[in-house]
Write a structure and sequence with these properties.
The structure is a homodimer. Chain A is an alpha/beta fold. Chain A has eight helices and eight strands. A six-stranded parallel β-sheet of chain A has the order 5-4-3-6-7-8, with helices on both faces. Chain A has a two-stranded antiparallel ribbon with strand order 1-2. The first copy, chain A, starts with 7 loop residues before the first helix and ends with a helix. The structure holds a DNA duplex.
Chain lengths: 215, 215
DNA sequence: CATTGTGAACGGATTCACAGCC
DNA sequence: GGCTGTGAATCCGTTCACAATG
């Protein structure tokens, strides 16, 4: 029962499996093999089986996986079986877009508040969303017992915002600010710096040019 | 001179080094050691030296790296020494936010066009940006010789858009659509699915709760 | 007998340790 | 003396191969 802690690479694939399962269930598919999951995801069948094995044995030998059962298990593993409260800090264009995106597409999370310093951003046309000024941050995090934050503030203020988040019990941060955040052990930061993603993409776009010249 | 191809993990770190160097140069720092770079980035000093070694020997033993020189080298390596033309396909909230973000923060790229099917999105208040209807896609890619695309269209139409992109010579795609894209060899796709990022973050937010209970 | 679950082999990336050089 | 550059050792994730089983 005491399994090894799943590596990050595995955890990153779990939501992909979940999405495929949602699609399959919508199409009334009840059983799925690791081979077909492999076709749908692009990961190898062995890898999928190994990934799931970190958390238990969910399949039936000779048959495959029951889509609904596996979905339930994945929801529980990822932590989406109960709705997760999140906050968005920085309510500029990117913060607004991410908020809308999640309210529309992600039934598993609930955005319980957005925060900005600019008074012009303190109202919104997004239905059912409360926008607060930054000085309400501690209060809301504690009252709502929020653990997850999306950060889209300018790099210059990111660290001081993070210090407040950590102080008030946030344990996971999705960071869009282009800067390294310093956090204590136990607080997980995932950097989603779009400039960096785009720049590494450019590396590959020209690499192929180079290859084209050679061949 | 014939070095091994740099692995993805290395390429993802290069833009981080570049950003740190930009900051250092702005503060008139002229020399930097791998140790200090390590403090700034969170990567180990050995790793930084190994990363750079994939592309050449840019430092001075006993001294460190000249910030301006290393920056020039990195720009060349990543492919940012000449301005890269990119297009944004899907000009909803996310597409608009990403466009604005890049026009403001990323001097190395130039967005030469945005595309959307919805006629309501075909105008914009973003200065100097041309918004086209989707049927102009092939024409613009070819005329401007674009190689890099940011994709923020709905998942249902993503693959058919990608087929057009590939057909017209796009070689690198930053994909925000929550779906697996099928592309031929030589076309690089980087998935930046925000739902998946957020869901794996939630995994870690609860993992820490579990730990707290145990200890 | 098809498909899962998993120990063993493999390979790629990181860390170590130190030689090379300013 | 101090810091880079790099072969060797190690670590970790993926792939292989097959035993287990409905």
């Amino acid at each position: 029962m005491s399994r090894k802690k799943a590596p990050k690479s595995v955890v990153k694939r779990l939501p992909v499996y979940l999405r495929i399962l949602d699609n399959l269930i919508r199409r009334d598919v009840e059983i799925i093999s690791s081979r077909v999951l492999s076709d749908e995801t692009g990961f190898t069948a062995e890898q999928i089986r190994k990934d799931l094995a970190y958390f238990g044995a969910f399949g039936t030998r000779g048959t495959g996986y029951n889509t609904s059962y596996l979905r339930e298990k994945l929801l529980r593993i990822i932590g989406l079986d109960k709705q997760t409260k999140i906050i968005v800090i920085g309510f500029g264009h990117l913060g607004k877009a991410l908020t809308r995106y999640n309210m529309n597409k992600n039934p598993y999370v609930k955005i319980v508040g957005a925060f900005d310093n600019d008074p012009n951003e303190l109202h919104t046309d997004i239905e059912g969303l409360q926008v607060y000024s930054m000085d309400k941050l501690s209060e809301v995090i504690q009252k709502e017992d929020v653990k997850v934050a999306i950060l889209t503030v300018p790099a210059e203020v990111a660290q001081q915002v993070v210090d407040i988040l950590v102080e008030n019990g946030i344990t996971a941060i999705l960071n869009f600010a282009p800067t390294k955040l310093h956090t204590p052990e136990g607080v997980y930061v995932h950097n989603a710096d779009l400039t960096i993603e785009l720049q590494s993409l450019i590396y590959y776009s020209q690499e192929d040019e180079g290859r084209a010249l050679k061949e």
